[in-house]
Design brief:
Largest sheet: 7 strands, mixed
Structural class: alpha+beta
Distance between the termini: 55 Å
Number of helices: 6
Strand content: 25-35%
Order of helices and strands: EEHEHEEEEHEHEEEEEEEEEEHEEH
CATH class: Alpha Beta
Radius of gyration: 17 Å
Helix content: 10-25%
Number of domains: 1
Strand order of the largest sheet: 4-5-6-7-8-9-10
């Protein structure tokens, strides 16, 4: 029997196969890691009985979709009114499907970087949606699909109200999205525990920093954007009020700390 196996550490789903893959390239990369127990695999069928979708309104027009209990990296996706899903999670259950269908469905899935590709093809097939990924991260697609469209350049539209901006940093194609004055940032711009500040890293779990020149380049892009809220990759990682100034001063603090 062929299954779409899922890496238990990063949550990435692989193409149908009779046996699990030998390894997960995303976890072997220095930006991620293989769990202490070694490479482990699961499937959506195995995850389903023990996990459920956690759907919450973040603000009018934005729904957060997480997984309870937490699985793999533990991020949550964001459904934007008008039919865009920002980032992705692995578990897809009846609760998430029913809620999304009531609020307009999904026509486009746009993802910040490969750690959140998750079960993007499963989601796209369920909602008959396209997937927008930056071409610079093409090599990290573990489950190919004709639904995937690789966009190029620095900006693209995911929908009438959602603009994608290549910010780089964490991955070459690292992307953020703008919607109605909110920056949807994944962890390309990481809202930290003191939510008046953000940070930027090449690897968060392995604590590998980005060079100051890359932070200054990213700061230059962020300075051109208009936003006053930031929604990061986890429920509590939200910056409300004067967010642009906070992000820019966070970039300045990072450069001072790392030095030339």
């Amino acid at each position: 029997m062929r299954e779409c196996f899922v890496c238990a550490t990063c949550g990435t789903q692989y193409p149908p196969s009779a046996e699990p893959p030998e390894e997960c390239p995303i976890c072997l990369d220095e930006r991620q890691y293989v769990g202490h127990g070694g490479q482990r695999w699961t499937t959506l069928a195995e995850l389903g009985p023990a996990h459920r979708s956690d759907v919450r309104e973040l603000e009018p027009g934005l729904l957060g979709i997480g997984t309870e209990p937490s699985f793999a990296i533990g991020q949550r996706a964001i459904h934007v009114e008008g039919g865009v899903l920002w980032d992705c999670v692995t578990v897809l259950d009846k609760t998430a499907v029913a809620t999304i269908e009531r609020t307009g469905g999904i026509h486009t899935i746009a993802i910040s970087h490969p750690h959140y590709y998750a079960a993007m093809v499963e989601w796209a097939d369920r909602f008959d949606a396209r997937i927008l990924l930056h071409e610079a991260d093409r090599e990290w697609v573990m489950r190919p699909s004709p639904r995937i469209e690789h966009w190029s350049g620095e900006r693209a539209r995911a929908g009438d109200s959602v603009e994608l901006i290549r910010l780089g940093g964490h991955f070459a194609g690292g992307t953020v999205a703008l919607w109605n004055g909110a920056l949807l940032s994944g962890d390309v711009v990481m809202v930290v525990s003191d939510r008046d500040w953000a940070s930027f890293m090449w690897s968060f779990p392995n604590l590998i920093p980005l060079p100051p020149r890359e932070i200054l380049r990213m700061r230059g892009v962020l300075e051109t954007l208009e936003f006053d809220r930031v929604y990061g990759a986890w429920w509590e990682r939200v910056m409300l009020g004067d967010a642009k100034a906070k992000v820019l001063r966070s970039a300045d603090r990072y450069v001072r700390a790392v030095g030339d």
